[in-house]
Specification:
Helix 2 runs parallel beside helix 6. The protein has six helices and six strands.
Length: 224
């Protein structure tokens, strides 16, 4: 989805951003993530993001393996900031919004704040390539990716719009499949932190092949 703001590099983004910890959520640059916001603290986060004008929210996964507090869990060190590109009010006190990914970030410090939501100081420079659309997509093994996708769909009795898949550029295809994948926090974090698109596709292929092999061995039923 095109966005009105032009982000040419890390200097175009704020160093301090609100963060939304959400397990299993994977946002990637130029990917779209729908969100159903209903908790008061995150309603306030959206309101403040719009009021401040930057319309940015950092998506990040809680790190359950290092969390002693369920209310304020530890965070993984890498997330992705997204811009609110669609917003609707539900009429029953919720926001229905869509984030479009801009760039990954590394958390350098979580701030002590008075807001009900968490805020972090972040560094985008380790992911400067995120600001260049479709960078490295020629290195993706598209044939293997599509072959594994075909096997996954058959194993789980799923269908897909193959016309849309075949017309999608490699970056959009890899990132969309990674974001929609049914895997857990560690796998999604590995795809998020992949140094380039080629590596992200390779991780997605490897994880899917392992999942398929496990299902064949155990006789697990297809995903519902």
């Amino acid at each position: 989805m095109p966005i009105n703001a032009a982000y040419r590099g890390p200097a175009d983004l704020p160093e301090v951003i609100p963060v939304f910890p959400l397990a299993g959520a994977l946002l990637l640059p130029r990917g779209q993530m729908p969100l159903n916001i209903f908790e008061p603290r995150y309603m306030a986060m959206v309101d403040d993001s719009l009021r401040d004008g930057h319309r940015l929210i950092g998506m990040i996964q809680p790190d359950a393996t290092h969390s002693a507090n369920d209310e304020t869990p530890a965070l993984f060190q890498v997330g992705c900031v997204g811009r609110i590109t669609q917003l609707a009010e539900s009429g029953d006190g919720r926001y229905i919004l869509e984030l479009t990914g801009v760039s990954r970030f590394k958390v350098t410090e979580e701030l002590a704040v008075k807001t009900p939501y968490r805020q972090c100081r972040v560094d985008y420079f380790p992911f400067v390539d995120d600001f260049t659309a479709r960078k490295g997509e020629d290195e993706v093994d598209r044939d293997t990716l599509l072959s594994v996708l075909t096997d996954f769909l058959k194993a789980n009795n799923l269908k897909v719009d193959w016309g849309g898949v075949e017309s999608a550029p490699n970056e959009a295809l890899v990132n969309a499949l990674a974001m929609m994948s049914p895997y857990g926090a560690p796998e999604k974090q590995a795809m998020l932190e992949a140094p380039d698109l080629k590596t992200r596709a390779e991780i997605l292929i490897a994880v899917t092949e392992m999942d398929l092999a496990k299902k064949r061995t155990s006789g697990d039923p297809p995903l519902q």
